[in-house]
Amino acid sequence: THTHTTHYILHTTHTTHTCTSSTVTMLSHVRSAAAPLLRTASASPAAVAATTAAAARRAAFSTASPALATRKEPCQAESMLDFGTRRLFNEDHDMLRDLARKFFTNEVVPHHSKWEDDGEVPRSIWKAAGANGLLGVTVPEKYGGPGCDILSAAVLWDEQAYSNCFGPGYSIHSEICLPYLMHYGSESQKTKYLPGTASGDCIVAIAMTEPGAGSDLQGVATTAVREGDEFVINGSKTFISNGQLSDVVIVVARTDPKARKAAHGLSLILVDTGTAGYKKGKKLKKIGLKAQDTSELFFDNVRVPASNLLGELNKGFYHLMTELPQERLAIAGLAIAHAEACFEWTRTYVRERKAFGGHLSDLQTIRHKLATLKTEIAVTRAFFDRCLELHMEKKLDTQMASMVKLSCTELECKVADECLQMHGGWGYMWEFPIARAFVDSRVQKIYGGANEIMKELISRSI
């Protein structure tokens, strides 16, 4: 299993590229974060030597050399997983990408099959990610984070998707949950939670979905009743990612049952998982994402201080709507990168697989299928990168976020399906990465707002 997986993941080409002006904060953090990775037991002497040599080469590059004009698009590179592509990024992001790729290759890939059997990953892999600066990359330095830009987060989305190992719910924690703390948290809440979220000591989940309320958040039935200086929470949640490992949960609860509109009576409340009355249910068995823990949560007269209110009272729905574009962008980023990886694994396979007196890649039907997929990936990647730029400019609206989530996840599932078909019977074997990709990709069209909801949101602007 690991032989096949590693073979595909490492099928990339390192290209020579020049450095742009330095992003000092991120560069220094990545350099300091490289040390603990080099000390990990699973890093071979060859890997250590390669990392040291790569760092030396990069340090020698001139910071005055313009590189953006020479960076290729992924579809122009020898492999879409190559380093040094996409004009959005610079040399500093490439250093982070190199660190992240080594981390996933050395620390996650070799153990992922066992974690799939366990139904969750160990806490140690969270702390290892934190020690290497790979969690909460946009958390400000004053709260113990790297203080990097959203492009740095996008690099990590790419690299986790390229590794084909989605067990560690890093992006859910870092780019879906933490923005609520950073944007709506009080100073005391930020001081209490953010340092641990960046180190991996505090894992965060967000509890929106209920047995009777999925994409329609207005149907939330969990209540939080104010009694003196406390909120008393009752209800249940389901399909909560990171639910078993979480240390704190952002709970969406109804605080005003008499609100004129259901959306007007929701609030966000922080609940520490050791609170009396709070119970984690069973780990849910899924057809995919088997190593990513997904849980039921139960609240039976759970009392928390009123100061645990996150943001404004009865404004929870609006806080959610404000942050959902980034959530959908993150899902889209994982999806398009996963599609690229599926394509590259399959290109390698058809070039090596012998059939009909030659290789599969000699057949016109195979070549034309790959040509079509590559074109669709290139077009969708360009759209995603434009949406990423818009998000950096704080201009990514609901319509565009819905479009990018819809287009990237639909393409991810299509590519996984058609690439599995080109693998033939071997594509149906779990030891091949494309099999895992096929089942893991399916949920992308469901969570973060089902794609049918995305179409409805888009249609409102037509």
Descriptive labels:
four-stranded mixed sheet; alpha+beta; 462 residues
Account of the protein in words:
This protein is α+β, with helices and mostly antiparallel strands and 462 residues long. The protein contains 14 helices and ten strands. The chain has helices spanning 2-9, 24-38, 45-60, 91-108, 112-118, 123-131, 150-163, 170-184, 187-199, 316-352, 364-392, 398-423, 433-441, 451-459, and strands at residues 204-207, 223-227, 230-241, 248-254, 266-272, 278-283, 294-305, 309-310, 354-355, 358-359. The strands form three sheets. Strands 1-4-5-8 form a four-stranded mixed beta sheet, covered by helices on one side. It has a four-stranded antiparallel beta sheet with strand order 2-3-7-6, with no helix packed on it. Helix 12 (398-423) packs antiparallel against helix 14. Mean pLDDT is 88; it is low at 1-66.
Q: Main sheet, how many strands, which sense, barrel?
A: 4 strands, mixed
On the 0 to 100 scale, the average pLDDT is 88
Structural shape? globular
Q: Can you give the helix content as a percent range?
A: 40-55%
* Count of helix runs: 14
Tell me the structural class.
alpha+beta
Assess the beta-strand content as a share of residues: 5-15%
Assembly type: single chain
Radius of gyration: 22 Å
Low-confidence stretches are 1-66
In spatial order, strands of the major sheet run 1-4-5-8
The end-to-end distance, rounded to whole angstroms, is 48 Å
Number of strands: 10
**Sequence of secondary-structure elements:** HHHHHHHHHEEEEEEEEHEEHHHH
Summarize the entry for a quick read.
By secondary structure, the protein is α+β, with helices and mostly antiparallel strands. It contains 14 helices and 10 strands. The strands form 3 sheets. The protein has a 4-stranded mixed sheet, covered by helices on one side.
